[in-house]
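Subgroup meeting minutes
Present: P.N., E.W., G.H.
Scribe: E.W.

1. P.N. recapped why we're keeping a running log of single-chain structure predictions: easier to compare across weeks, and new members can see raw inputs and outputs side by side.
2. G.H. added today's entry (166 aa).
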Amino acid sequence: MNAKVSNTILKNIRQLYKENDRATILFDAMASRRKDTGTTSIDHLSKSLGISRGEAVSFARVLETAGCGSFLVGRRGQKSRFVWAYSPISLGKAALGEDDEIEDIDSTVAAVEDDEEEMDDAHTADAAPVLSSARKFPNITISEAKAALAESLGVPITSVEITVRS
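Output recorded in log:
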């Protein structure tokens, strides 16, 4: 990849990571994935981020503006989707500051659609979204965190359990 393009995208995604809660959740989840994907459906993006479909479309346009890929409107039976221009795992790691290079997407995964189970596992397995929120809200109580998490996931607060380990 062109170094100038790479630096621009690095700057864009790191700024998004710091300033946009949705981007923080997405990049955290992508950095912890085991498999890359070429596309992510808007429906899957909506579900995994706990936002409406319209908000997912708006967020996909933000990712497009940052240089991560292209938002494609569904036509003729195709789903609306985001097509990644680079490896989502690489973008996630670069956004977190773990890597300074963004890898091109492997041609073998360019046509592979996001595996919902994989992203959901990465999203919940290590509670990356909760940890990133904790950095932003260091004085939040467990009750407040529980209420915020329940609201963001659209589930009753009684369905949320937080375990603290030291």
